[in-house]
Amino acid sequence: MSSSAPSVETRAGRGSKREKGDGGGAMHNIVAKLTRKLVWVFAGIIFAGIFFWGIVEIALQGPNPNVTFGTITGHFSFDRFLLFGGILALIPPAIMYLFDSKRRDAIDNNIPHLIRDIADAGRSGMTLTRAIEISAERDYGPLTTEIKKLIAKISFRVPLDQQSMESVAKHVQEIQYLERKRRATLRPFIGVMYISFAVFLVTVYLLISSFFKQLANTNFGGGGSSIGGVGFNFISLPLPKITAVFLYMGIIEALFAGLVGGKMASGYIRDGLKHAIMLMLICFITFVFFV
């Protein structure tokens, strides 16, 4: 009888730990979901703020207001206000995805250490459940939270095979090594992406400033001209429309280049949102303030 008493206390203790784990995990999930919703709400507030700011500027200055920031003046329109608001509204989700990426990397880096610690616990004859409970008391960064969630869900008692656990840890480390090597190999392509986009912007700037502006300011005459018996009628080119076409071309290229760069670098498209925002801001500032 005396030998069974500690066993009952252990089960009770483990039951209380599971209850605490359930409560902590539920609270963590609620906070995470609430935070994600607030991020998108904040993004909507940013877009709405830029939208109403644009309406006020257009009401005060007309359909093409000039907005001064410091010593430079930007040439805006209603569609440019919408574009600017859309770009800035993507910043909060990009920050959220950046933290998610860092958390995911921290978990991946600590998994081999966790598996090795569990394997070491198996040397003393511990069950898998008890080994995980002990591991939950150590610091594995964000992985510790996930371990506590796991404790609240498991109830099985199986012996640990130390050799198998060490093999799993080694296999995970090999996978992580290959992933780091892949990222290191593809990281230079991110720099190439920024350089190629800068070349695109410089080319468009020179093309608009040295070619299309001259055509827009040149009067070819309304009567047309005759070359070899064939008549040609030239009119002034609508420079604002040409500039708008190149602006949207640049924004589309920046968006897809950033997303593809994130996919290549980390394997997740959403990790490229920060690159897309950076490229789109560079493109927008170039066209609005310098072209």
Topology:
Elements: H1 5-61, E1 66-69, E2 72-75, H2 78-89, H3 91-121, H4 128-135, H5 142-151, H6 162-216, E3 225-227, E4 230-232, H7 239-266, H8 273-289
Antiparallel strand pairs: 1-2, 3-4
Helix pairs in contact: 1-2, 1-3, 1-5, 2-8, 3-4, 3-6, 4-5, 6-7, 6-8, 7-8
| Average pLDDT for all residues | 80
Helix content: over 70%
Proportion in β-strands: under 5%
Could you say which overall geometry the principal axes of the C-alpha atoms support? elongated
Please trace the helix and strand order, writing H or E for each element. HEEHHHHHEEHH
Total number of helices = 8
Number of strands: 4
- Counted up, domains total 1
Short descriptors:
two-stranded antiparallel sheet; 8 helices; 291 residues; disordered N terminus; mainly alpha
Can you summarize this structure?
It is built from 8 helices and 4 strands. The strands form 2 sheets. A two-stranded antiparallel sheet has the order 1-2. Strands 3-4 form a two-stranded antiparallel ribbon.
Q: How would you describe this protein?
A:
- The protein has 291 residues and is mostly helical.
- The protein has one domain.
- 75% of the residues lie in helices and 5% in strands.
- It contains eight helices and four strands.
- A two-stranded antiparallel sheet has the order 1-2. The chain has a two-stranded antiparallel sheet with strand order 3-4.
- A hairpin with a 2-residue loop joins β3 and β4.
- α1 (5-61) packs antiparallel against α3 (91-121), α3 crosses α4 (128-135) and α3 runs antiparallel to α6.
- The N and C termini lie far apart (88 Å).
- Mean pLDDT is 80; it is low at 1-18 and 222-234.
